[in-house]
Specification:
Layout (H helix, E strand, L loop, with lengths): L1 E6 L4 E8 L2 E9 L11 H23 L8 E7 L3 H18 L3 E5 H7 L12 E6 L4 E8 L2 E7 L5 H11 L7 H8 L22 H12 L15 H38 L3 E5 L6 H14 L2 E3 L11 H12 L16
Parallel strand pairs: 1-4, 4-5, 6-9, 9-10
Antiparallel strand pairs: 1-2, 2-3, 6-7, 7-8
Helix pairs in contact: 1-2, 3-9, 4-6, 4-7, 5-7, 7-8
Bound molecules: 5'-O-[(R)-(carboxyoxy)(hydroxy)phosphoryl]adenosine (KG4) and zinc ion.
């Protein structure tokens, strides 16, 4: 059974083909147009999806080795995301489904990030916990079956990816800053600067305080207490401080984000007695998080799973695998299924 999947929720246009749960191709067209704007511009994203979608689907099909006539169902990202972007992928999938007279499968993007962990041969056992960390979401999800998930905890303000991107912006780095912080952090001392860990009850997260702490820390060029506005250094002194300490600043910020995430995940795993743990979403591409997550598993005797790099950030491979499990349950959508900015 072969599924063609489309992902277009944000700024990546992606198409993938899967055959009986095995991914045959996963092509991603990244939209470079946003870098100059310091963030994703929704209107530009929709236009770029319009330009990219046909060639990306074409290449994904060719790479899979399957002709379009061998496709049994079309899966697409229904929600959540930028509405204009979702509509491009949604309308494309619906048109193809009508033209080919094949079933349509509506996939939730956050559920798909979690199920990216079911792509490799070595899969977690149910129930497992997944820390889903992306540009728009930060969640701990309890996964009881491929299509049965419960949110255990989530962010009450910024997402982890947003925390990375906002910190990077304050450091004068281009969008998306997460991968750049990761890169510079590799040569830095994570214990050089101490940023606060928020005290949030339960399994929820908060990252807005960290952003404020970084703002004041940089405004004071690292000379005053990190989260108190005591004096403002000159622009020149601030730039010099960032230039000379970029690696240590990035390593310290990254290390704090990682401890915030993993402390909550390990608390949930302990309390719920779950030993199979996964991470997913764009931030799970972070090398520091991947390493710390694996070390935590070894230390506590938990089984840890991380999707392959290409299935961490937005991709249609994860939509295809989710589509596969929904197909098995005959969970098909009708043509009037709406694309939705929010959901899950
Ligand atoms: O899942 P994703 O591709 O898109 C959303 O659904 O949001 O996640 C994008 C987020 C961005 O905030 C980006 O900065 C972050 O993932 N990200 C990283 C890394 N690679 C991507 N953050 C930290 N380190 C990375 N290596
Ligand atoms: Zn995503």
């Amino acid at each position: 059974m072969n599924i063609l999947a489309i992902e277009s929720s944000c700024d990546e246009t992606s198409a993938a083909v899967c055959s009986n749960g095995a991914i045959l191709s996963n092509r991603i067209a990244t939209q470079a147009v946003h870098a100059a704007h310091g963030g994703v511009v929704p209107e530009l994203a929709s236009r770029a999806h319009m330009q990219n979608i046909v060639p990306v689907v074409d290449v994904a099909l060719k790479e899979s080795g399957l002709p379009l006539t061998d496709i049994d169902a079309i899966a697409f990202t229904q929600a959540p995301g930028l509405i204009g972007s979702l509509l491009v992928g949604g309308q494309f999938a619906k048109s193809l489904s009508v033209a080919m007279d094949k079933p349509l499968i509506a996939v939730n993007h956050m559920q798909a990030h979690v199920l990216a962990n079911l792509i490799p041969d070595q899969k977690p056992s149910f129930p497992f916990l997944c820390l889903t960390v992306s540009g728009g979401h930060t969640q701990i999800v309890k996964c009881l079956a491929p299509t049965r998930m419960e949110i255990v905890g989530e962010t009450i303000d910024d997402a982890a990816g947003e925390a990375f991107d906002k910190a990077a912006k304050l450091l004068g780095l281009p969008y998306p800053g997460g991968p750049l912080i990761d890169k510079y952090a590799k040569d830095g001392d994570p214990n050089r600067f101490r940023f606060p860990e928020p005290k949030i009850p339960g399994y929820n997260f908060s990252f807005s305080g960290l952003k404020t702490a970084i703002l004041y820390f940089l405004r004071n060029a690292g000379t005053a207490q990190v989260y108190k506005e005591e004096f403002a250094a000159t622009e020149e002194a601030r730039k010099k401080f960032i230039d000379e300490n970029l690696a240590d600043i990035c390593a310290s910020i990254q290390s704090r984000i990682i401890t915030i995430l993993l402390n909550k995940l390990s608390k949930a795993a302990r309390d719920l007695g779950i030993k199979d743990l996964c991470i997913a979403g764009g931030v799970s591409a972070n090398s520091g998080l991947r390493k710390a997550f694996k070390e935590m598993g070894i230390e506590k005797g938990w089984n840890t799973f991380i999707p392959d790099f290409q299935y961490c950030t937005d991709n249609a491979g994860m939509i295809a695998i989710t589509g596969y499990y929904k197909y098995l349950e005959k969970d098909f959508a009708t043509l009037d299924v709406p694309s939705m900015a929010r959901g899950f």
